[in-house]
């Protein structure tokens, strides 16, 4: 079993946002562990960019990040 890499210790940014950053970080962890294809992160980021374009003005998809702490 692998460690949690501190991902359970996450502080959102001042706007209470940052879940997209947290999700992308976990996805990168899965790629590092070879549980997912190396293309997974790029594909996910392209999908998020597509959603931002398609849903502009309807939904806010933040670009901000939170912080992992000890």
Q: Helix and strand layout, with pairings?
A:
Elements: E1 10-11, H1 19-32, H2 40-54, E2 67-68
Write up this protein:
The chain is mostly helical. The chain has one domain (10-68). Helices cover 41% and strands 6% of the residues. It has two helices and two strands, in the order E-H-H-E. The chain has helices at 19-32, 40-54, and strands spanning 10-11, 67-68. A two-stranded antiparallel ribbon has the order 1-2.
Count up the domains.
1
State the assembly state of the protein chains: single chain
Instruction: List how many beta strands DSSP finds.
Output: 2
Low-confidence runs = none
Rg, nearest Å: 14 Å
Q: Termini separation (Å)?
A: 20 Å
Proportion of residues in extended strands:
5-15%
Net shape: flat
Strand order of the largest sheet: 1-2
Q: What is the mean predicted local confidence, pLDDT?
A: 85
**Protein structure class:** mainly alpha
Keywords:
2 strands, flat, 70 residues, two-stranded antiparallel ribbon, 6% strand, mainly alpha, 41% helix, single chain
Question: Short description, anyone?
Answer:
With 70 residues, this protein is mainly α. It has helices at residues 19-32, 40-54, and strands at 10-11, 67-68.
């Amino acid at each position: 079993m692998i460690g949690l890499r501190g991902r359970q210790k996450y502080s959102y940014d001042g706007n209470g946002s940052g879940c997209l950053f947290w999700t992308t970080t976990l996805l990168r962890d899965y790629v590092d562990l070879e549980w997912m294809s190396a293309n997974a992160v790029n594909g996910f980021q392209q999908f998020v960019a597509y959603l931002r374009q398609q849903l502009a003005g309807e939904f806010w998809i933040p670009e901000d990040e939170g912080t992992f702490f000890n």
